[in-house]
C-alpha cells in the first residue's frame, strides 16, 4: 500500500515536468549519437531500472518514457496518415468498381433488348443478332474481370488498414543499461505493452484511445467489403442464358486466389470452419442467417438497386470518419481532412 | 453628354461581367439539379423491397440505403440553396447598378435632362434613352429568371417528397436549362446598340 502511494506521488511530479523534459527527450531522440546527452540518459535509465522491479516494461514515470513519447508520436502520425491515404485509395477503387459494375449491367440489359429489337435493313445480314449478342457478351465478361480486380484492390486495402491498426504501439527495445534508447513497432517482450502504461501520447489520448478510434473506422470498411462481396457475387453471376452459360458464383467460393487469406485477416473468414461471415449492417446489429440466391433473371430495377447499394456504402458513416480524423488530427496537429477527399 | 454615355457603357461592361458569373452559377445549378433528380428517380425503386434481390437476406438494408440517399439529397438541396443565394447576389448587384445609373441623368435634381437630350444621338453612340431602357430590360430579365429558378427549385424539393410524378423532372430541368427569361438574341441586341462604335 505505501509503495502505491509513493508511485502515485512520483507520477504526479513527473507529469508536471513533462512539458520541459519532453523537449530534452526530443533532442536526445533526434541525435542519438550525441555522447554527452546520451550518457546522462544512460544513467537515468539505470536509475529507472533500479526503481522498477519488472524490467522491459516502461512505465509512465520512468525516464525512458520521455524517450518513448517522441518515438510514439512519430509512429502515430505516420500510421494515421497511412490510414487517411488508404481511405482515399478505397474511394478510388470503389468508384472504379462502380463504373465497371454499371458497364456489366448495361451490356447485360442490351443483350436482352436485342431480342426484341428491329434490325431494319441490317436484318438481311447473316446472324446479325447472334453476332451482336456474342460481342456484347464478350464485353460483359471483360468488365467482370475488371470488377473482380477492383474488388481485390478493395479487399487488399482493408487488410492494409487492419495492419495500420495493429501497428500503433511503440515498444522499447534494448536493454535498460544501454545508453541508447531504441524503439520498435513489433513486440519483442510480452511484459511491454507498447503503450507506456497508458500514458497520453500527445495531450490527452493514450495509444489505446487511438487504436479504438482507428478500429472504429476500419470496422466500417470491414462490414462494407463484406457487403460488396455479396454484390460482386451477384454482378459476376448475371448473364443472358440465351447467349452463353456462365458458372454461377456462390457465397462460399473463393473469388480470387488468396481471397480467403485476405478475408481471414479481416476476421470475415474462419480457417477452422471454412466459413465466410454473412454480411450484416454495421449499425443495426441485425443478423443475417442465410443468403438466398435467386436463379431467375434479374430485372433492371434490381440491378439498379445493386448499383445504388454499391455506391451509397451503407456501412460507412462518412461524417463519423471525418469527425474521427478531425479529433485525431487535432491532437497531433495534422490536418487529415485536407488529404481526405 | 458624351461623358455620361461613357459612364453608362461602363455599367454595361460591369453587368456583362456579372452575367458571366451568372452563367457559371447556371452550370453549377444544372449539375446539382441533375444529381438531385437522379436520386429522386431512384427513390421509387429503393422504396420497393421487391427490387432488392439477394440483398433481401440482409435485415434492414432497405432502410439503410434509403437513409443514405435521403442524406445525399439533403446535402444537394443545401448546396442548391447556396447557389440560389449567389444568384440573388448577382441580381442585387445589377439592381444596384441600374438604380445608381438613374442618378447619372439627374433623377429629380436641377440638372434634369430634357426629353430631347435623352434622344440625342452623336454618331454611332447610343442615346441616353437606349442606355436607360437597356439597363432596365437586363434588370428585368434577371429578376424574372431568378424568380423562375426559385420556383423550379422548390418544385424539385416537393417532388422529392412525392416521387410518383417524376415525369415532371425532365420538364423542370429543361426549363432550368432554357432560361426563357433571358433570351440570348435580345441581350446581344442591346449590347450591339450600346457598343455600336466598337463593333463597326
TrEMBL record, chain A:
<protein>
    <submittedName>
        <fullName>Uncharacterized protein</fullName>
    </submittedName>
</protein>
<feature type="compositionally biased region" description="Polar residues">
    <location>
        <begin position="42"/>
        <end position="56"/>
    </location>
</feature>
<feature type="region of interest" description="Disordered">
    <location>
        <begin position="32"/>
        <end position="56"/>
    </location>
</feature>
TrEMBL record, chain B:
<dbReference type="InterPro" id="IPR038985">
    <property type="entry name" value="OPRN-like"/>
</dbReference>
<protein>
    <submittedName>
        <fullName>Uncharacterized protein</fullName>
    </submittedName>
</protein>
<dbReference type="Pfam" id="PF15011">
    <property type="entry name" value="CA109-like"/>
</dbReference>
<dbReference type="InterPro" id="IPR029159">
    <property type="entry name" value="CA109-like"/>
</dbReference>
Amino acid at each position: 500500500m505505501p509503495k502505491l502511494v509513493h508511485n502515485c506521488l512520483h507520477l504526479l511530479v513527473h507529469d508536471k515536468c513533462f512539458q520541459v523534459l519532453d523537449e530534452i527527450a526530443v533532442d536526445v531522440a533526434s541525435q542519438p549519437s550525441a555522447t554527452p546527452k546520451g550518457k546522462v540518459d544512460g544513467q537515468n535509465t539505470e536509475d529507472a531500472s533500479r526503481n522498477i522491479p519488472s524490467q522491459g516494461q516502461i512505465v509512465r514515470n520512468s525516464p525512458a518514457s520521455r524517450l518513448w513519447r517522441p518515438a510514439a508520436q512519430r509512429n502515430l502520425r505516420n500510421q494515421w496518415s497511412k490510414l487517411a491515404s488508404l481511405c482515399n485509395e478505397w474511394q478510388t477503387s470503389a468508384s472504379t468498381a462502380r463504373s465497371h459494375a454499371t458497364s456489366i449491367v448495361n451490356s447485360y440489359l442490351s443483350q436482352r433488348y436485342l431480342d426484341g429489337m428491329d434490325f431494319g435493313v441490317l436484318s438481311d445480314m447473316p446472324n446479325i443478332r447472334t453476332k451482336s449478342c456474342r460481342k456484347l457478351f464478350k464485353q460483359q465478361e471483360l468488365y467482370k474481370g475488371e470488377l473482380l480486380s477492383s474488388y481485390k484492390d478493395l479487399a487488399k486495402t482493408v487488410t492494409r488498414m487492419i495492419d495500420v491498426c495493429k501497428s500503433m504501439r511503440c515498444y522499447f527495445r534494448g536493454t535498460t543499461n544501454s545508453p541508447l534508447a531504441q524503439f520498435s513497432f513489433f513486440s519483442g517482450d510480452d511484459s511491454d505493452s507498447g503503450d507506456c502504461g497508458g500514458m497520453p501520447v500527445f495531450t490527452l489520448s493514450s495509444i489505446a484511445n487511438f487504436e479504438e478510434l482507428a478500429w472504429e473506422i476500419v470496422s466500417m470498411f470491414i462490414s462494407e467489403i463484406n457487403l460488396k462481396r455479396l454484390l460482386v457475387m451477384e454482378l459476376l453471376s448475371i448473364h443472358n442464358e440465351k447467349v452463353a452459360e456462365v458458372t454461377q458464383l456462390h457465397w462460399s467460393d473463393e473469388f480470387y486466389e488468396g481471397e480467403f487469406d485476405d478475408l481471414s485477416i479481416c476476421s470475415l473468414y474462419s480457417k477452422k470452419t471454412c466459413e465466410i461471415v454473412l454480411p450484416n449492417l454495421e449499425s443495426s446489429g441485425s443478423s443475417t442467417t442465410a443468403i438466398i440466391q435467386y436463379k431467375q433473371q434479374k430485372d433492371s430495377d434490381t440491378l439498379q438497386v445493386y448499383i445504388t447499394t454499391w455506391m451509397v456504402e451503407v456501412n460507412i458513416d462518412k461524417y463519423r470518419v471525418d469527425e474521427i480524423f478531425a479529433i485525431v488530427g487535432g491532437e497531433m496537429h495534422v490536418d487529415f481532412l485536407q488529404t481526405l477527399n | 453628354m458624351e461623358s455620361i454615355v461613357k459612364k453608362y457603357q461602363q455599367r454595361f461592361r460591369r453587368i456583362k461581367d456579372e452575367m458571366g458569373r451568372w452563367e457559371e452559377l447556371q452550370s453549377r445549378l444544372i449539375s446539382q439539379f441533375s444529381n438531385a433528380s437522379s436520386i429522386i428517380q431512384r427513390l421509387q425503386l429503393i422504396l420497393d423491397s421487391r427490387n432488392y434481390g439477394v440483398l433481401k437476406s440482409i435485415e434492414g438494408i432497405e432502410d439503410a440505403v434509403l437513409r443514405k440517399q435521403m442524406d445525399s439529397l439533403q446535402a444537394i438541396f443545401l448546396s442548391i440553396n447556396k447557389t440560389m443565394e449567389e444568384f440573388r447576389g448577382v441580381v442585387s448587384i445589377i439592381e444596384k447598378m441600374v438604380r445608381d445609373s438613374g442618378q447619372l441623368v439627374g433623377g429629380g435634381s436641377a440638372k434634369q435632362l430634357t426629353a430631347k437630350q435623352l434622344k440625342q444621338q452623336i454618331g454611332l453612340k447610343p442615346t441616353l434613352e437606349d442606355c436607360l431602357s437597356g439597363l432596365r430590360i437586363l434588370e428585368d430579365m434577371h429578376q424574372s429568371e431568378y424568380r423562375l429558378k426559385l420556383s423550379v427549385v422548390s418544385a424539385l424539393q416537393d417532388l422529392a417528397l412525392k416521387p410518383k410524378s417524376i415525369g415532371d423532372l425532365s420538364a423542370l430541368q429543361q426549363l432550368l436549362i432554357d432560361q426563357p427569361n433571358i433570351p440570348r438574341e435580345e441581350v446581344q441586341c442591346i449590347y450591339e446598340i450600346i457598343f455600336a462604335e466598337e463593333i463597326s
